[in-house]
Specification:
heterodimer, A: 284 residues, mainly alpha, Cytochrome Bc1 Complex, Chain D, domain 2, two-stranded antiparallel sheet, B: 475 residues, alpha+beta, Immunoglobulin-like, 2 domains, five-stranded antiparallel β-sheet, 17 helices, 44% helix
Chain lengths: 284, 475
């Protein structure tokens, strides 16, 4: 019987369990041993080629001189080499010419998207969707102008419009009339008592007779459907008329400041951002 | 009584032990040197093997000025004669795979492991390798002797030549494989000038190594222990499947042929226990023990047995293609009344229909529209609502296209950015941005479906439409 369990008569360790289970000393399979030796050789070769053994002052560097940092730098250099021709072109061309070149626009849109997300989207929203108190960049209504050079100028130097508050100059009734007129204007209509105030109290000085605004000084167009401060209701419009925008010394005034990025970003980066904003949907 | 029971049990045990002694699992401990014999199925095998010539010669076929079949991985396109398949059409590959897996199932249910026995690369390459072995070392018994002979100059010479030829076949196999993925002539040039890309060298190396290992050394062990098809196909045969089968009712009781004993007398079956069927078996099994996992149904034992039957003047077919039902004398079910055959073939027809549909509707132009989500819509100064869309136009033809875009779905729809034709470069996806506007007073729903149509201006029959959405403020 026992011969059947050990047909080759292999030697055993002498240990027996349960009276008949013997531990044989058969060799492991050859392929298994070969694999074991090969992995040992692999390890030795690896240790020679690559950084591996820590020492008190550092580690063995390996004959290939491979480091993770170098690998990373090589990869980034590879990408930079692909980008270089585009970057060169963008550097040398004015923004308007970049915007006219479809390939460059494509490159710009993809490469500056992250920068827009980092520096612009915080206020203007992803894709220039705007936020309450911050202008939408994807529409065709511009405070200071939607030409590409103007946009570049806006990013470089920042913008700060100014509107005085009229709380001290106007009565409550006058404020209400003016508010109704401003709301009516955006729908193409008017509110007669308000219109009189609009002309007489100096609003036309900046916003114009027809309320279309003045981009030179960033006075918004009141006759269109886009609102600088939302929601577009009586309360909000009245608040703006009463307290103004960036009015000096007025604590309750609305704040509307676009910071200058000229000292934070390179000219190329700003140029790219200008192209990006111009392409969002409302560039002129 | 008690004594008698013990007697019976011992008898039973002895039978078990005899069976266990006979039972042998082929784990490659003893190399199989199969005898080669001419015959009908041997001829069929050679004919079936020629299908693999396609693998070697296919890459040199030319079609319309380029390689007829080219799997261009870097450029992500497959050229199959005049059809170009881009990643978007790869679902058809699934149909092709479905077809072939069902073909495998259908054939197996009808006639067993036909693929294994006649077409499988493992079988075919092993057969070529052993053919070379026989040419160099002689028939099976000589080969066994040579294996045990001491290493002298002759043995070394024979073995070196044999292994070199094996490796060479492996290398040619690997090179032929890579030729399907690059221009065959250029790639040959690159190999000969040692300038082929690393991935090509690696492929050739891997193929050489595994062809040599599998066909030269592992052989039937691959079928026994590595190949999943063997196991899958094993469970696909049933009582109606036609397989190489030993007719035990005719053959048993087997016994050595002795002078003066007439097998026809009924005391002895037709099997004369000459073991020729075992000698010729490339996987080293005994077919007389019935269908088993090691049998690749190559039918070489049929040739061997028929040759013996001819010699001893008995009718052929002691081992023959037969179903278990047939051997047991039961009536056979006709082919197309078997549920498995019906199910398998209908799925095969479905997948073929899918491929035909795919090839027929393989458009030249494909349009995808991505609606901009940030912002979903933009209010314009004139009170209209603007939506932004990114168009992805895939031009599958060989020429650049001038594309005209038209949007429809609302009476007040205005499009911006598509006044001029867009250029779609060939064999590529190009991205274009367009804007659609609807005056605020005409937009009566929060969202309305719009259809965007791209049409080749030079060939108006090439067009593609895509349904997208137009979003406006909440109503």
């Amino acid at each position: 019987m026992s011969d059947r369990k050990n047909p080759t008569g292999a030697p055993d360790t002498g240990h027996t369990w349960d009276g008949n289970l013997r531990e044989l000393t058969n060799q492991p399979p050859r392929w298994w041993m070969i694999t074991l030796y090969l992995s040992g050789i692999f390890m030795l070769v690896y240790f020679v080629l690559y950084p591996s053994i820590p020492t008190f002052t550092g580690y063995t560097k390996g004959v290939l001189g491979w480091t993770q940092m170098k690998r990373y730098e090589d990869s980034t250099a590879e990408i930079a080499a692909i980008r270089a021709p585009y970057e060169e072109k963008i550097k040398s061309l004015p923004a308007s010419e970049i915007a006219a070149d479809k390939e460059l626009v494509n490159y710009t849109q993809r490469s500056v998207k992250v920068l827009f997300g980092d520096r612009c989207a915080g206020c203007h929203g992803a894709g220039g969707a705007g936020n309450p108190g911050y202008p939408v960049l994807a529409d065709d209504d511009w405070l200071f102008g939607g030409g590409i050079d103007t946009i570049q100028q806006t990013i470089t130097s920042g913008r700060q419009g100014m509107m005085p508050g009229f709380k001290a100059m106007l009565s409550e009734q006058e404020l209400n009339d003016l508010t109704l007129h401003v709301l009516a204007m955006s729908k193409g209509g008017e509110h007669a008592p308000g219109k009189e105030l609009f002309v007489n109290k100096g609003c036309v000085g900046c916003h114009g007779m027809d309320g279309k605004g003045m981009q030179m000084i960033g006075a918004p167009n009141l006759a269109d459907a886009v609102w600088r401060f939302t929601p577009a209701n009586e309360e909000s419009v009245k608040y703006t008329i009463a307290h103004g925008v960036n009015a000096p010394g007025a604590a309750e005034t609305r704040n509307a400041v676009m910071p200058a990025f000229g000292n934070q970003l390179s000219e190329t980066e700003i140029k790219k951002l200008a192209v990006y904003v111009h392409q969002l949907g409302g560039g002129q | 009584m008690n004594n008698q029971t013990e007697q019976l049990d011992l008898q039973h045990l002895e039978d078990l032990y005899r069976e266990a002694d006979y039972w042998h699992v082929n784990t490659g401990g003893r190399p199989i040197h199969a005898k080669r014999m001419p015959g009908r199925y041997r001829a069929y095998k050679w004919i079936a093997m020629t299908t693999w010539l396609l693998f070697f010669l296919g890459p040199y076929l030319r079609w319309e000025g380029r390689q007829a079949v080219l799997f261009d991985i870097p450029n992500r396109q497959f050229h199959i004669f005049s059809v170009t398949i881009l990643p978007q059409d790869v679902w058809m590959l699934a149909m092709v795979l479905l077809f072939f897996s069902l073909l495998l199932a259908a054939v197996t249910s009808v006639a067993g492991r036909v693929y294994c026995g006649y077409f499988c690369f493992q079988t075919v390459w092993t057969d070529i390798f052993t053919w070379i072995e026989e040419k160099l070392e002689g028939p099976a018994n000589k080969r066994m002797k040579l294996d045990q002979a001491p290493w002298d100059a002759t043995k070394i010479r024979i073995k070196v030549v044999k292994h070199s030829i094996w490796l060479l076949i492996g290398a040619v196999t690997g090179i032929s494989f890579t030729l399907w993925f690059g221009d065959a002539l250029q790639l040959w040039k690159a190999y000969l000038t040692l300038q082929a890309p690393l991935v090509a060298w690696l492929s050739v190396g891997i193929f050489t190594f595994f062809t040599y290992l599998f066909s030269g050394h592992l052989r039937e062990q691959v079928c026994f222990w590595l190949c999943p098809y063997a196991r899958i196909q094993g469970v696909m045969v049933d009582r109606t499947t036609v397989l190489p089968t030993y007719d035990f009712s005719r053959g048993e009781p087997r016994g050595k042929l002795k002078k003066g004993v007439d097998t026809r007398a009924g005391k002895q079956g037709d099997c004369i226990d000459c073991k020729q069927c075992v000698q010729v078996c490339p996987t080293g099994i005994d077919i007389r023990r019935g269908q088993q996992e090691g049998c690749i149904t190559c039918a070489l034992c049929l040739d061997a047995c028929d040759a013996v039957m001819d010699k001893i003047n008995r009718p052929r077919g002691l081992i023959r293609y037969a179903s278990l039902d047939e051997i047991e004398g039961k009536p056979s079910v006709s082919l197309f009344k078997r549920p498995r055959v019906i199910v398998y073939t209908s799925i095969m027809f479905l997948s073929i229909a899918g491929i035909i549909y795919g090839l027929a509707t393989l458009g030249s132009l494909e349009l995808k529209v991505l609606h901009e989500r940030q912002p979903l819509f933009v209010m314009q100064s004139d009170g209209s609502v603007q939506n932004k869309y990114e168009l992805k136009i895939l031009n599958k033809t060989g020429q650049d296209m001038r594309i005209q875009i038209r949007a429809s779905g609302h009476s007040g729809l205005q499009s911006i950015g598509i006044e001029e034709a867009l250029t779609a470069p060939h064999g590529k996806v190009s991205a274009h941005t367009i804007f659609l506007r609807i005056p605020g007073d005409k937009l009566l729903a929060e969202r309305i479906p719009v259809t965007i149509r791209a049409q080749d201006m030079d060939n108006p029959e090439f067009f593609s439409e895509y349904e997208s959405m137009f979003f406006g403020p909440k109503r």
